[in-house]
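Example 5.3 — Stum, mechanosensory transduction mediator homolog
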Amino acid sequence: AADPRGASSSSGVVVQVREKKGPLRAAIPYMPFPVAVICLFLNTFVPGLGTFVSAFTVLCGARTDLPDRHVCCVFWLNIAAALIQVLTAIVMVGWVMSIFWGMDMVILAISQGYKEQGIPQQL
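Solution (predicted structure tokens):
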């Protein structure tokens, strides 16, 4: 149906979508890109190992999406995610989760790099 004023019905409408993250997903640290790629590589071949390594980057000052939680709490959330990946790797669920977790690490590293450089991004 055409608008009698000559404008489309969706003109001037801005929709913003914001992802709601659970505590485990929000605990993934923003790491430098090379470290994130190494963690993805480790998670691909040894489920949970890259997630375990990423937990220690939190202790080294890596930022997460849980700023109100203590560093030790976020560290243990990452250790819990690594254990879940290891324990469920037997039925392939943990291996797939581990690969997706590594991909999230790389995506977060890329988005953090764009923010630091002040470049607008669209992911």
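Remark. Residues 31-114 form one domain.
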